Each structure stands twice: as C-alpha cells, then as structure tokens.
Sequence to fold (231 residues):
Amino acid sequence: EAQVTQNPRYLITVTGKKLTVTCSQNMNHEYMSWYRQDPGLGLRQIYYSMNVEVTDKGDVPEGYKVSRKEKRNFPLILESPSPNQTSLYFCASSPLEGVSTDTQYFGPGTRLTVL
Amino acid sequence: AQSVTQLDSQVPVFEEAPVELRCNYSSSVSVYLFWYVQYPNQGLQLLLKYLSGSTLVESINGFEAEFNKSQTSFHLRKPSVHISDTAEYFCAVKRGRGSTLGRLYFGRGTQLTVWP
Fold:
C-alpha cells in the first residue's frame, strides 16, 4: 500500500530534550515536506526537500532541522524543543515531475507536546 | 508571497442542507488549486483539484468546486451534506512556476460541522 508513515504518532517531552520525528514514504517520491498545524493558522511549511541531499526552508524553519540522506526518509529534528513547538506535525510527499500539479500525500500526523 | 483566505473558520449546518465553503487566493501567476479534507484524528486527504480545463471540478463524494479566475476564488460546495462530512476543510494553492514550484500554501481551514 502506498503510504507516508510517521513515528511516533504522539510524543510528550520536556524543554531542551532533543528529539527526532521520522517520516518515510514508499512511493519513490522525490519531493518531501514537513508542515505544522496549529489551531486557526492552518498548515505552515517548515522545510522541504526536492531530492536526496537537497533541502530548503519553508515559512517557519526556526528551531527545526531536517536531513535527506535517502530518498524515502525525511526526519525532522528538534535540537532543543521549546513549548511553542507544541503542535501537530505532518509529513508529505509527491513526485517531482509535475510537482505543481500532483497531489501531495500526507502522513497521519505526529502530535507533539513540549512541557 | 502566496496567500490563501478561507473566509469562514466555522460552518455549522443541518444534515441535508446545502453548504458552501469559501476560498480566495492571491497570485499574479498561474496557480493550481486544491481542497483537502481532514477527518477527526486523521491526516489530510485530497478532496479535489483544479489544474486546467473545465472550471468546475467534482469529487467522488458529491463535493464540487468552481475556479473563478476573475474573482480569484475556488469555493467548495455540496448540495446536501451528511453527518459524515463533518471535518476540517483546507483550501490550498500551488504556483505553476517560479522558485516556489511545488510548495503548497494552505488557508487556515474551515471546520464544517453537520448536525442531525
């Protein structure tokens, strides 16, 4: 089954404790992206990647890092989480050819709480 | 920067009533338009999209949206809603060219609640 998976689905942590949220897709997509969803703000893009070793900032990159060492994986790293990073996070992917017109496929989401 | 405005944050309706969820976008270049739906405790799923051709696009579950270039709108409609349509709906835009190729810009979402 074609899908985007994220782990963990739920995470409660404390300020300053480094964490990684993993994202993996099995559709051989080049384009991958991370979003955060906050009430009343919709989804905002954090980082995206056009291909392996190619990443770029979205609209709200502060406090986050990403890496793209393999095509299928695009982990989101919070080096020193803070309470304002409490949010619902979504990973998404799509093919690069026709990236403007193709659907982005979303993972199930990771609900992060930083105390 | 691209902006997407969803004019209503909450839309409560009774079952079998018609509904319209409004979306306007700003862009000086060609765009592609999407509606995504998020059911409770789930991720986003594509509902329908406009790429080119007929300005009226339909989904498999009875929703339709019309692209209006002059009004830069892409409103979502359904003539008769069901309780199972209760969800949050997001309008989104991609630019057809330029440095932000492929980036999805989302509106803030409209929570549709259908009451029996």
Notes: The mean pLDDT of chain A is 92. The radius of gyration of chain A is 13 Å. The first strand of chain A starts at residue 4 and ends at 7. The CA atoms of residues 32 and 93 of chain A lie 4 Å apart.
